Amino acid sequence: MPRQLGDLEDAVMTRVWQWNRPVTVREVLEDLQQERSIAYTTVMTVMDNLHQKGWVRREVDGRAYRYTAVSTRAAYSAALMNEAWSRSDNPAAALVAFFGMMSAEQREALQDAMRIVQPDLSGTSEPQSGEPVGEPAGGASDEATEDPAEDPVDGAGPEAGR
Asked: Quick one: how many helices (H) and strands (E) in the chain?
């Protein structure tokens, strides 16, 4: 499980993620110096620490290293959320509290994400009695184009038995 990055580590990783290419300490230093005064050795130590933690890999390029991110910022954020959630003694309550803190935009992004990871969720209410499972409410199926091998049997759906 990843640990939360410190402020300077996050600033360095932000550049590595944004640039999405191998970077040198010098490149990161020059970009950071636009915002704050910082020493080359400080950036070098931070990048070495990130390498030791497994956040970046490095390859020798002349007398320097070129660093590349091992994972995406999205993967890092997801791992942090998972770590925090798994530490809760009541995960369901933690999720309810977390969802309650979300803005409308964040809730919409969550719904979009759920549709991606579970595409069979239509976002509509539960099927009414008599409606086949897996079809939208009120949706008429076009039997001429339907593949009989993919027909749900007894509402089990195409994922049944997998």
From this structure: 6, 2
Model pTM? 0.59
Q: What would the mean pLDDT of 91-117 be, rounded to a whole number?
A: 92
What is the band of 60 on the pLDDT scale with cuts at 50, 70, 90? Answer: very high
Half-sphere CA count of 9, side-chain side, radius 13 A: 19
| Conformation bin of residue 140: beta by default, left when phi > 0, alpha when psi is -120 to 50 | beta
Report how far residue 148's alpha carbon sits from residue 152's, in angstroms, rounded to the nearest whole number.
Answer: 9
4-39: string of b/e by CB count within 10 Å (b at 16+)? ebeebbebbbeebeeeeebbbbebbbebbeeeeeee
The proportion of the chain whose per-residue pLDDT surpasses 90, expressed as a percent, equals 56
Count CA atoms within 13 Å of residue 27 on its CB side: 15
Choose between 59 and 4: higher pLDDT.
59
Q: Alpha helix locations (H) across 1-133? A: 7-19, 25-32, 40-53, 73-86, 91-101, 104-117
